[in-house]
Amino acid sequence: MKHKDLLLPYSCQKAGWIIAIAIPVLFILYALISGGNKALVTERNLHYLIGILAMLFFVAVFLICASREKDEDEMISSIRRQTLSIFIYMLFFLYFLAGIFFSLDIGLNIVKEYQGEVLGNTIIRITLFAIVYELVFKIRLWLNRRESK
Amino acid sequence: MKNTVRVERAILDITQQDLAAAVGVSRQTINSIESGKYVPSTVLALKIARFFQKPTDSIFMLDEND
Lengths: 149, 66
Known about the structure:
The structure holds 2 protein chains of 2 kinds. In chain A, α1 runs antiparallel to α2, α2 (43-65) crosses α5 (122-147) and α3 crosses α5 (122-147). Chain A has helices spanning 10-34, 43-65, 74-103, 109-119, 122-147. Chain A is flat and about 55 Å long. Chain A has 5 helices and no strands. Chain B is mainly α. Helix content of chain B is 59%, strand content 6%. Chain B has helices at residues 5-12, 16-23, 27-34, 42-52, 56-59; strands spanning 2-3, 60-61. Chain B has a two-stranded antiparallel ribbon. The chains are: A mainly alpha, B mainly alpha. The interface between A and B is medium-sized, with 11 and 16 residues.
């Protein structure tokens, strides 16, 4: 059955996973290559590397989230829609909790830093949301497949 | 919604995978339809009925909760 949606082909999901796996490998390679070479391990180089790896991770998460499953059909689309609803409920709940938490000024300094550094950064926020969405979706898909065995 | 997909499949002696391939969905989807966990779209219901060469409403029926 032809399934019309705005999702990317399954090959993009595979590419996303390859990029996601390559990120720690690249970081380890950099550490191995630059080990002992102080000229390579500069703050500027590290800054660039982390920036590039972070953007690669962002691209990887996007490719994984926005791609079809191998056997995408109308039921998987239905699970996707339900996951989106669950995700929105979770988001409202988490923001509600965070609102109470921060407005009452409870918590440690690390939490306040987290609020400023993480919640304040749109790219990191979108990536985190996408990861949570994909995680919930994959768990629901896995449960469905397990029940169908 | 109730359905008789499992019965019809048993009459023809075909597997869930055979039916899934014939109507263009995954085996998990057929399994979910048979166990009543998933209500198929109109297009898929029509395709399943056409596969079994029966009217759609003889395979898919409303139950008390619908």
